[in-house]
Amino acid sequence: MSLFLEPSTRTTCSFEMASKLLGMDVINFAAENSSLKKGESIYDTVKTIEALGVDTIILRHSDDQIFEQLVSKVNCSMINAGAGKNEHPTQGLLDLFTLFQEFKKLNNLKIAICGDIKHSRVAGSMLIAAEKFGMKIYLCGPEDLMPEKNKITENAKLANLDEVISEVDAVMMLRIQNERHESLGITPESYFKTFGLTEERASKMRPEAIIMHPGPFNRNIEIADAVIESKQSRIFAQVTNGVFMRMSILDWLLGEEEK
Ligand code: CP
């Protein structure tokens, strides 16, 4: 059961595609027409879905701690498809896969993560993964959008994108998560000029370095139109890899039961 209580294009569709390619059935929970609208809690919704007999619940929710709250209370498996500002582990795995596909290693890669890191579950998962795999992370963007000190892992440090762009293996751009905080008080034009991956900035990257973005992207706000579809961009490859990665996850979790 695919239970998305926040908007999604890539994650929901790639889980559905992955399930179908594996010959599994997937039910897409229609939140807008569900009994959540009548006041049913997320806990009771999940317990009800479990009672229907599903093997796994793929859940996206705005609460950072939703998995800690629910996992021990249900018997079927649950897959984290994005929890608040906290983690997005399947995105983290597909990002690692994309980097490995490119560089045939993860250890010692230098990655600049740029933008709204404070509110990004993608950055949260990447920081955890990068520490495990010995990658060096530069966190770039407006001071107000940098993570709290206790969330900055030992292998990560704050940096100015212009000072590190010529040495990194990958630049991972993030959108500003306007739905999670007050306005920054900076115009989109000014943000783009100061913090965005403009064509001029991208031209300073090493030729073998790659450009990533988990999506959805806002063209010409955090990343230039032309950069998204440039030779160095792996943004759409990340989407394709998302299907492979989610196939692996579903097969690992449910494959034996399905055979
Ligand atoms: N990267 C990502 O999670 O995209 P969606 O919100 O479209 O699923």
The proportion of residues in beta strands is 5-15%
Average pLDDT confidence is 95
Give the tally of structural domains: 2
Strand order of the largest sheet: 6-5-4-7-8
**Given the helix and strand composition, which structural class is it?**
alpha/beta
Q: What is the terminal separation in angstroms?
A: 19 Å
In this structure, how is the largest beta sheet organized? 5 strands, parallel
CATH architecture of the largest domain: 3-Layer(aba) Sandwich
Rg computed from alpha carbons, rounded to a whole number of angstroms: 19 Å
**Poorly predicted runs:** none
Discrete helix count: 10
Topology as H/E string?
A: EHHEHEHEHEEHEHHEHH
For this structure, the CATH topology of the largest domain is Rossmann fold
The gross shape turns out to be globular
- Small molecules in complex: phosphoric acid mono(formamide)ester
By CATH's scheme, which homologous superfamily of the largest domain applies?
Answer: Aspartate/ornithine carbamoyltransferase
Helical content (DSSP H or I, runs of 4+)? 25-40%
Q: Quick one: how many beta strands?
A: 8
The CATH class of the largest domain turns out to be Alpha Beta
Brief digest:
The protein has 259 residues and is an alpha/beta fold. Helix content is 38%, strand content 14%.
Which labels suit this protein?
5-stranded parallel sheet, binds phosphoric acid mono(formamide)ester, single chain, 8 strands, 259 residues, Rossmann fold, 14% strand, 3-stranded parallel sheet, alpha/beta, 2 domains
